[in-house]
Amino acid sequence: MQKYIIEREIPKVGTFEREQLRDASKASNAVLAELGPDIQWVESFVTDDKTFCVYLAKDEAIIQRHAKMSGFPATKITQVKRLFDPTTAYAAA
């Protein structure tokens, strides 16, 4: 499976209360269960008017399917090509 970042434009999502986020999570999880093992939600980051979600998926099409079924927009889907972090500076060549 590939790693993707999904940008979702959701007005005022940064003001959502814990219960609203819990309900959104339940809705997303229900769709994920229906779609099966070819898609997995890893985590999401919430800003004022957007969420940035990290998913593992077999392809972009299943992410689009999840967005349509869940009602959460997939404004932009970007496949992650590589990861690096501060420890990369110390990795052997």
From TrEMBL:
It comes from the Bacteria. InterPro entries: SCO4226-like. It holds the Pfam family SCO4226-like. This is DUF4242 domain-containing protein.
